[in-house]
Amino acid sequence: MELKNVLLVDDDEGFNFLNRIVLSDNKVNCTVHEATHGRAALDYLEKCPVCPEVILLDINMPVMDGFEFLEQFEKYAKCAKNTHVFMLTSSGRDADKLKSLNNKHVKGFFNKPLDDSHIQQILAAMAQ
Fold it and tell me: Total domain count for the chain?
């Protein structure tokens, strides 16, 4: 499956910059949008003409964290139905991983930074 739109939801601009590089290095030629917290991501989804195929979501962010975002995501049915969410976080807590993977929208859990193997896993999950 080809990625056309990716939404990065992370308050760390450095990681967002690196994520763009990893996507590009893996020949994932897509439009990348950024939101620095969950509320900004929901605002983007509300107004976006085309839903992203993938959301890379951090857990720990100001304003609205990743779990709060996931609680609200269901309300955005047009995107929730066809968008794959992958947690991309620095959290090493087993409880965070378990909570993430128990959410029906979350297709994978990765520790930062994004790397080539994560991209391959994302593409494989989308092909299923």
Answer: 1
